[in-house]
């Protein structure tokens, strides 16, 4: 397995420290009290360092929307039936879903990729088919995927980033949709954080107390079945993850290797971010965290990643919507950074 994924250990590009420092100095010279625009200043400085530019910008924004189903849905861990995944695939492709509407509103280009929903939809307009199976295995009872599927999912994320770069992308957002996918994300996070299921299991799409208990038991069963001393991060992903989580892990690593800033969405994408950083710690330097998920385990992942998301809007939809919500603020931060006058330009006395 590792021979096929040797690229995972390719070097991560360094952040341009000189560009970031120049941006920091410019922020201190703008006609405002130093630090008075708070984290908007931080956004511009981060992007300047990532892009090595005095004129940072998130645009063009490219979204990789990974669609897949999860066998663990059989354990009754979602309020929605699994057939909703294929229905939402078509809804997203037609432009009717939140992620689609928001992508149009913020001018982001979105590529929808079917990695393996449970029912083969056949050709669907605006959907790229890279199917790896009819969903993953039920992690409470068997491994999520084979080694071959793991390799293919990692490579699907890698090739998605390469397509994004060829289209001129300057910022990447990964999203996901698949009924039950907070459960494998929780299992992956528990394994990587060495925490019990009870610390991270949350209501997902809105589970009641009984559903939450089923979900906790499913994650506990998965951890008991698949955790073993000496298992690598990739082996854990193959056993506990989903095609969407694994593809995003591959996408994040590739983006950092290619110098493409990453805007991390919510709970599920944060599990992929955690996996990517455990595989390649310097990937963390290329990540901007959009929002705090309402899922309770998200805080623990953010602590492990030393991350402080910019938004806290009670969001828990996924699909890249949290990342999309931050894009206008990133644009504002960059426009202010570039266009605001300095004290000397404006003839304003600097204190």
TrEMBL record:
Pathway assigned in UniProt: Nucleoside biosynthesis; alpha-ribazole biosynthesis; alpha-ribazole from 5,6-dimethylbenzimidazole: step 1/2
Keywords: Cobalamin biosynthesis, Glycosyltransferase, Transferase
Gene Ontology process terms (BP): cobalamin biosynthetic process
Pfam families linked: DBI_PRT
Reaction(s) this enzyme catalyzes, per UniProt: 5,6-dimethylbenzimidazole + nicotinate beta-D-ribonucleotide = alpha-ribazole 5'-phosphate + nicotinate + H(+)
CDD domains the record matches: DMB-PRT_CobT
Protein known as: Nicotinate-nucleotide--dimethylbenzimidazole phosphoribosyltransferase
């Amino acid at each position: 397995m590792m021979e096929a994924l040797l690229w995972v250990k390719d070097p991560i590009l360094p952040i341009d420290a000189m560009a970031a420092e120049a941006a920091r100095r410019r922020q201190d010279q703008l006609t405002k009290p130093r630090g008075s625009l708070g984290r908007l200043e931080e956004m511009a400085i981060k992007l300047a360092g990532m892009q090595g530019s005095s004129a940072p910008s998130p645009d063009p924004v490219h979204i990789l929307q990974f669609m897949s189903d999860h066998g663990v849905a059989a354990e009754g861990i979602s309020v929605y039936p699994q057939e909703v995944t294929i229905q939402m695939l078509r809804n997203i492709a037609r432009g009717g879903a939140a992620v689609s509407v928001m992508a149009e509103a913020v001018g982001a280009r979105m590529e929808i990729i079917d990695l393996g929903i449970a029912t083969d939809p056949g050709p669907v307009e605006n959907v790229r088919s890279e199917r790896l199976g009819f969903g993953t295995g039920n992690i409470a009872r068997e491994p999520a995927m084979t080694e071959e599927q793991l390799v293919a999912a990692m490579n699907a994320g890698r090739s998605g980033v390469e397509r994004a770069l060829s289209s001129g992308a300057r910022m990447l957002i990964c999203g996901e949709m698949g009924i039950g996918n907070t459960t494998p994300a929780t299992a992956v996070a528990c394994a990587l954080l060495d925490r019990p299921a009870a610390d991270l299991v949350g209501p997902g799409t809105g589970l009641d107390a009984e559903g939450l208990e089923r979900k906790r038991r499913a994650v506990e069963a998965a951890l008991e079945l698949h955790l073993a001393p000496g298992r690598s991060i990739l082996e854990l992903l193959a056993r506990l993850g989903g095609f969407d989580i694994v593809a995003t892990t591959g996408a994040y690593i590739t983006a950092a290797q290619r110098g493409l800033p990453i805007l991390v969405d919510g709970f599920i994408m944060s599990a992929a971010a955690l996996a990517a950083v455990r595989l390649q710690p310097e990937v963390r330097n290329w990540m901007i965290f959009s929002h705090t998920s309402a899922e309770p385990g998200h805080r623990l992942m953010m602590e492990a990643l030393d991350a402080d998301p910019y938004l806290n809007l009670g969001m828990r939809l996924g699909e890249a919507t949290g990342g999309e919500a931050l894009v206008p603020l990133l644009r504002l931060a960059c426009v202010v950074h570039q266009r605001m006058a300095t004290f000397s330009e404006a003839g304003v006395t600097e204190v």
